[in-house]
Amino acid sequence: MILVEKILFLRHVSLFSHMTSRELGRIAEIAEEHVVPAGTTIIREGEHGDCLYVIVEGEVKIVHDEEELASLGPENYFGEMSILDNEPRSATAVAATDGLLLRITQKDFHGILARNFASTLAIIKTLSHRLRTQIASRKAETTSSPEKPGAA
């Protein structure tokens, strides 16, 4: 992908959707393309994480304790938590199909965030919204699921 293609693509990724064209340009410059064959473990639960990934093409399964949590496709991202909090990966990501990913390293990402408060605030807002949406979704699942037999 050429730089302009990356910028246009990143505009549709929720993590970066509140950024200006200039900020997207900075992200596009540091995003490295990675081709992954189906079956490849991209990140492993418990390992140290130093990058996040954005899916350009293909499908990635997110697994925790052998339970599939999500199936992600183009314009989705994963690995963002570890590069922000420096904690071990909370889940494993496996390429379900051949795919093309953009890889953004922690060092480069932190460099952009350190120089640009607007970018930092946009990322925080997006992650906060994502967390609120997931909590609401879990609440809805819990309240709509039938009571287990024998539960009082």
Please explain how this structure is put together.
The protein is built from 5 helices and 8 strands. It has 152 residues and is α+β, with helices and mostly antiparallel strands. The protein has one domain: Sandwich (Jelly Rolls). The strands form 2 sheets. The protein has a 4-stranded antiparallel beta sheet with strand order 1-8-3-6. The chain has a 4-stranded antiparallel beta sheet with strand order 2-7-4-5, with no helix packed on it. Helix 1 crosses helix 2. The longest helix has 28 residues. The radius of gyration is 17 Å and the shape is globular. The chain starts with a helix and ends in an 8-residue tail after the last helix. The model has no long low-confidence stretch (mean pLDDT 88).
Q: Strand content of the residues, in percent?
A: 25-35%
What's the architecture in CATH terms? Sandwich
**Which structural class fits the helix and strand makeup?**
alpha+beta
- What is the C-level CATH assignment? Mainly Beta
Mean pLDDT: 88
**Biggest β-sheet description:** 4 strands, antiparallel
How many separate domains make up the residues?
A: 1
Major beta sheet, strand line-up: 1-8-3-6
Spans of at least 5 consecutive residues with low confidence: none
- Give the overall silhouette: globular
CATH topology: Jelly Rolls
Spatial separation of the terminal alpha carbons: 57 Å
Number of helices: 5
Supply Rg.
17 Å
The level of helicity is: 40-55%
